[in-house]
Amino acid sequence: MTTAGQSKSQLKRYLIIYFFILALSAVQFLFAYHHAEGAQLLARLLAVALIQAALGVMYFMHLAEERRSLFLTLIPATIFVLLMMNMIWSDSFRLLHMRP
Amino acid sequence: MSESNLNTGGHAATMEGSPYAIPSRKLTMWLFIISDAVTFGAILFAYGYLRTASTDWPDPFKFNPSIMNVMIMTFILITSSLTMLLAVDASKAGDKPRTMRWLGLTMLLGAIFAGLHIREWMGLIHEGVRMFQNPWGAPLFGATFFSITGLHLLHVISGIVALSVIARGFARGSLSAGHVESVGLYWHFVDVVWMFVVPLVYLVNIAR
User: What is the ipTM of this complex?
Assistant: First the structure.
């Protein structure tokens, strides 16, 4: 059982992260309408999304409070697999330009 | 089953403790989450592949009503993650009524999200968007849009069902705070996926 003081500070932390994630979403909408297009827009949106995801995973899903071994088992492999999927882009551009 | 009985899980003392010091239930949920994350990643990459290879990808999402709707849906889903957090905390504190209230609010927010999403789908279908055709451009726009958002919507609806099962079990005393925590992990994951769906599916395709 947590004490009342611990609960309050925990709630404060949750609220700070919640409002920060909401603010980041607002930033994404601003980027889309005012500041960028094309590849630059995509890069900015993805960067913000990654920060939001990191906050969600570490603090909402409490991965930051778990053992380091759990983090090291789950996250690097996932990032590796997602990064490896980037090898498709050369074929996508080939299709775009209809190269043989 | 005692939450502290990590070593044996209620069986004879022949099993080793978890190297991560978490119950099997939680570890299984984490493993499922990373496999699901990679699945969504693959679908989003496939969508990116098709979009990049296309010269006439539609950009149909006007600020009103599409992007406004997406903003509201994003707010609702992120707020539901907060209510889920509070439900998990309440369950760990052993406060059943508070747990039920926060779980109920999470389910309600999830249902509102699903309703708004289905309404958006109906609007697009009314405008002529189908899986393999639309009035604007590349034929696969519909297939990618409905696949990605449909898979996410399926996860939201499944999550609502799972939350109701867990809530019922916790209220009866047959399920523990650990079960609430595990379903909470799933719910937060659904929210994290939406954080990528919004920019990649909606914000790069806004009508200018």
Answer: 0.91
